[in-house]
Write a structure and sequence with these properties.
This protein has about 55 residues and is mainly alpha-helical. The chain has a single domain, classed as Irregular (30s Ribosomal Protein S18), CATH 4.10.640.10. About 45% of the residues lie in helices and about 0% in strands. The longest helix is centred in the C-terminal third of the chain and has 16 residues. The chain is globular.
Amino acid sequence: MDYIDYKDVRLLMMAIAERGKIQPRRISGTCAKCQRKLTTAIKRARQLALVPYVLD
């Protein structure tokens, strides 16, 4: 992954488990650097209400 955008909800939702938690590296299959970027993007999108904190 070159650039992870916090506005790309479809990409971010693939890295979130069914309960709304961010999936760990061993499950998502990302490298450490990409996982940090992905986590930051998910948290930013949550603050802007683009992605829910908890899924039903």
